[in-house]
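ESCALATION

Customer reports they have been waiting on this structure for their group meeting. Please prioritize. Original submission:
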Amino acid sequence: MRHFRLIIPALWLGSLIPCADVLAGPAKPGGPSASAPFVVVIDPGHGGRDAGSRGALLLEKDFTLRAAGMLAALLARRPEVKAILTREADTEMTAVQRVSVANYNAASLFLTLHADASWRPGARGPAIMVAAPRRPPRVAGEAARAVAFRWQRSQNIHLASNRRFALSLQRRFAAIRAGEKPPVRILAVRDLEGARMPAAYVSLGVISTPEDEARLSEITEEDTYLTALARAVLKFAGLTEDLPPKPPAPAETAPVESTQAPVSSEQPATPETGAAAGESPQSEPDAPVEQNAAPAGEGR
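Update from on-call: job pushed to the front of the queue and completed.
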């Protein structure tokens, strides 16, 4: 009898397994697609009155705007990725406004691009920073549960993902120049505070060093550091790292020539007079005008 009692619950639980599968519905797709892309928000650092770091000829705010646009164009070659810029012009934005763009668009990754300055003459190369875990300050009168809620929504819960992305990017940057391994720092980065997704601060060079400033001023969409950053984003999104070639620029179309006969500006002659319409018929040609003729009413 005891053996019978043990079998019945097992059979009953086994009968519920298919029902649970039916209630669960169809399986969700495994990764980003063209209809459900991976959203990355790219923030060009500084802007407006905030020029950022300065080189001999280059301003950080101008460089970051160009670099962010090129990175977005690189990622746009993959339909599974949607890149959004926090600013598309020389406008001033607060750190809260920049992060709010990422939160509003439910981004899966937030990147803020920079070009730092250094007091060391030989400083050069990129650097990567992620937010350090810390407890948010408590506002006067705020409940403990509210503080805990803000703690959970801060960068603390994304520390492992942030570090994974930063180390992946570090390996790619280190492969560009042998022996130059960019640092990965975990700091209290103000530009990343409030982001509700994995985030990283990426400096693409030292703008105060002439060598790096020359490289940053001549950056193109095929720049090795930009392509390495784009491939790191694709890897983080769970996609292949293939970057299709840049689509060719649309050719200028030549004006289409008309196949109709050109319309003459002269009006056809009327059958009655043989002269063109609008002209008074003349019975005989005008007499030649003598150039030295005297004015009317005067004799020679």
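Sent to customer with the following note: The CA atoms of residues 140 and 147 lie 11 Å apart.
Escalation resolved.
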